[in-house]
Amino acid sequence: MSLPPLVPDTDVHVHVFHTANPLAERRTRQVMWLTAVMMVVEIVAGTLLGSMALLADGWHMSTHAGALAIGAGAYRYARRHARDPRFAFGTGKLGDLAGFTSAIVLAMVSLGIAYESVVRLFQPVSIHYGEATAIAVVGLAVNLLSARLLWDDHHHHHHDDHDDHHHHDHNLRSAYWHVLADAFTSVLAIAGLLAAWRWGWTWLDPAIGIFGALVIAQWSWRLMRQSGAVLLDAAPNAALERAIRDRLEQGHDRIADLHVWRLGPGHHGAIVSLVSDAPEPVDAYKARLADVLHLSHLTVEVHRCAGSH
User: Fold this and answer.
1) Do strands 267-276 and 254-264 pair parallel, antiparallel, or not at all (unpaired)?
2) What is the C-alpha separation between 45 and 51, in angstroms, rounded?
3) Between 22-49 and 170-199, two packed helices, what is the crossing angle to 10 degrees?
């Protein structure tokens, strides 16, 4: 006996939890190239001119260029493989994986910057302050331009999800905060160069390098915790859990087991186990949750209470 043909989008459940964002993907790629060019200029100039702050800012930029490359690649891969059946719950977490990877690289580079800065404190080198300051100013201008390119899309996304931080696109957020952090270290580099040039405080340049390394490390740890929690399904959404309980725990129906996890930006999955004296069909329970925002995948199992008829 042959089975009836499947009806598209009704009989087949498609696990597409990646929201295409072509503008963010394109701008992330543009900012990546801007950052990469300025990174090369600052590293070469910092080495030739003897500025640790400028060199640290250049290497800091290298992490941003790498992270932006990972982010752009993640957008592309997630978009192209959104319907790939090999991914049980889609490609929505690729942005979180990209953010976690860039956070690890950033932490390693911060250690390198701190080490080199400490060495420069005890073994100072001559610095060409005028040239180094000019290049640092150009780097800051590139940072601000990059932030402007990413601002509109990040700002719009942020206000769409202001009620729940669990809905953030960590990939887009990572790109935006990468360029802002780089702008901050550029400001520090300029301040250190000007102070050393004006008052002869040669110790200030490597000291600012150490401070910048600490800022990078702190930012890296924060991103690592946020994205890692999502990857390990350890980022509970309390508001969504409450909404599910309020909708399902009615009359004699009680939730025995509930799991809620993030599938991607703005998408969550839930597995619910219910017990009841008079259980209804599964579709009836799913209907209660049909209008719950950000609940994109739902599995419900129902058990009759022991001893009930």
Assistant:
1) antiparallel
2) 8
3) 20
